[in-house]
C-alpha cells in the first residue's frame, strides 16, 4: 500500500488495483479553490490512478464539497472575472478527466454537495451516497451562473424541466431523491468507505474492462461536452 500526499489538499492511496483519492480541505468543507482543483487534476493523472482498475473519489470531514469557496471570490473581488475563469476552467478540466479516465470512477458522497462539486458525481461511473448526503445548487442564492455541469450534463440525466426547477427553486435533494432521479446508484446507511471499497473490489476483479468499454461507447460526445462546459 502506497501513499502520495499532494500539499494536503488531495491525497492518493493505492490499495491493490484500487486508487483512493480524497479531498482534504475539511476545515473549509472541501470548498473548491484553484489550488485544490490543480492538485486533484495532478493526482487523477498520476500513474497510480491511471494504472488502477477503479478510482474512488471521496472526501475528508463532514462534507463532500460545498462547491466554489465564497471566501476565494471575496479575496479576489478586485479581479473576480479572471479568478472565476481560472476556477471554473480548472473545474472543467477535472470533470473531463473523470469523464474520460482510463479507470472506473466511483464517487463516495457524504454530507452536503453544493454548486460545481456536482460535476464530480455527474462524471462518475458510479455514485454511492450516504443517507445524510444532499445536493443543493445555491446559484440563485449567491447570484452566480450555474457551472460544474448543472446545465451541461444534468439535463441528460433528469431532463431539462427537472433541471430548471431544481436550479430556480434552489431545492435541496436528499440521497433518496438523488437515487430516484438517477444521480446516485446506491444509498447506504452506515459506512460509505466500506461500501465503496466492496464495490470497487468486485469491479476491479471482474467488470472493469466491460465498464470502461461501455463508457467509451456512451461518451462519444466529449468534445460537445467540453463546449457545453465552456459555455457555462
What does this entry show, briefly?
This protein has 232 residues and is α/β, with parallel strands linked by helices. The protein is 47% helix and 19% strand.
The number of distinct β-strands equals 10
Lateral strand order in the biggest sheet: 1-2-3-4-5-7-10
Morphology call:
globular
Taken as a percent bin, the fraction of beta residues is: 15-25%
Largest sheet: 7 strands, mixed
Overall mean pLDDT stands at 91
- How do the SSEs run, as a string of H and E? EEEHHEHHEEHEEHHHEHEHH
The low-confidence runs, each spanning 5 or more residues with pLDDT under 50, are: 1-6
Question: Structural class, judged by helices and strands?
Answer: alpha/beta
Per-chain topology:
Layout (H helix, E strand, L loop, with lengths): L1 E5 L3 E6 L2 E6 L10 H11 L2 H4 L3 E6 L10 H6 L4 H20 L4 E6 L2 E3 L3 H5 L3 E5 L3 E3 L2 H4 L11 H5 L1 H10 L3 E2 H7 L4 E3 L3 H27 L3 H10 L1
Parallel strand pairs: 3-4, 4-5, 5-7, 6-8, 7-10
Antiparallel strand pairs: 1-2, 2-3, 8-9
